[in-house]
Write a structure and sequence with these properties.
- This protein is of the alpha/beta class and 258 residues long.
- It has one domain: 3-Layer(aba) Sandwich (Rossmann fold), CATH 3.40.50.
- The protein has seven helices and ten strands.
- The strands form two sheets. An eight-stranded mixed sheet has the order 1-2-4-3-7-8-9-10. Strands 5-6 form a two-stranded antiparallel ribbon.
- The chain is globular and about 50 Å long.
């Protein structure tokens, strides 16, 4: 009985520690023309507004959409709280939250017998969520403590799609990017052909086919920019856990400068 109590205590402490870690992400709200985009932001240790810092923008997947300003940290939030990372890199990390009635990317989605089919748009107007995100970044990146040569973006699933989308809408902003199990209309790739990219996908993904990522990779290669491309042959849609475990992901990302 004592052992069970000890295990429960340790489990409770670990849950509390995890919650405390995520609480380091400050809750913020961006409001413009009556519309709201909620986001969480993690500042580096010993943040000094007189210094300049890299910024990483992280876009979550569909399952983390909403208005609680919490769910978007579920996948990826711990990645940037890693003590080794925090001690070796001074970075500002932003996790915006897409509303449930919108989408990061301009893509048509049809469901047939519970199977989703994606049709990526060439060009087109940004969604409400993407428009808000563009305005947030336009505003935030003007801060004197943001290093304009070290701004990055990455995301998973819907956020991987959103990563390609924001790259083509702001191709001169980002020094490098990563996209996990996402996709795009390959005709959009020429807009971000100069941006260093690391693309990830699960080989068994039955939600967002890996062909979408491969199509972007192949098109960029034709355009003269061969991105890093990693396929986890045994992974289904959740290829982000594998990607987050890549020891070189964040060092590679932050090694680039415009």
């Amino acid at each position: 009985m004592k052992r069970i109590s000890t295990v429960l205590l340790l489990f409770s402490l670990s849950i509390a520690a995890f919650a405390q870690d995520l609480s380091l992400y400050k809750k913020e709200v961006f409001v413009t023309n009556g519309d709201t985009l909620k986001y969480r932001i993690l500042y580096p240790k010993n943040f000094d507004s007189q210094k300049k810092y890299p910024v990483i923008l992280f876009l979550h997947g569909r399952g983390e959409s909403g208005s609680d300003n919490e769910k978007q940290l579920a996948n990826g939030g711990k990645l940037f709280l890693n003590e080794n990372f925090r001690n070796n890199y001074e970075v500002i990390t932003i996790f915006p939250q897409c509303a449930s009635n919108s989408y990061w990317a301009n893509v048509a989605i049809d469901t047939v017998n519970t199977k989703r089919f994606f049709t990526f748009v060439k060009g087109g107007k940004p969604t409400k969520a993407m428009n808000l995100l563009l305005q947030l970044t336009n505003s935030y990146f003007k801060n004197s403590f943001v290093d304009p040569g070290k701004i990055y973006v990455g995301g998973l699933s819907m956020g991987g799609m959103g990563t390609f989308e924001i790259l083509r809408r702001k191709p001169k902003t980002f020094a490098a990017a990563f996209a996990i199990c996402g996709g795009d209309n390959v005709l959009n790739a020429k807009k971000y052909k100069h941006v260093p990219l690391w693309i990830f996908h699960g080989g068994l993904d039955d939600v967002v086919t890996p062909q979408f990522s491969f199509g972007v990779y192949r098109e960029l290669k034709k355009l003269g920019n061969t991105p890093k491309f990693t396929v986890y042959l045994k992974a289904n849609h959740n290829s982000w856990d594998n990607a987050f475990a890549e020891p070189e992901l964040l060092p590679w990302l932050l090694s680039h400068k415009k």
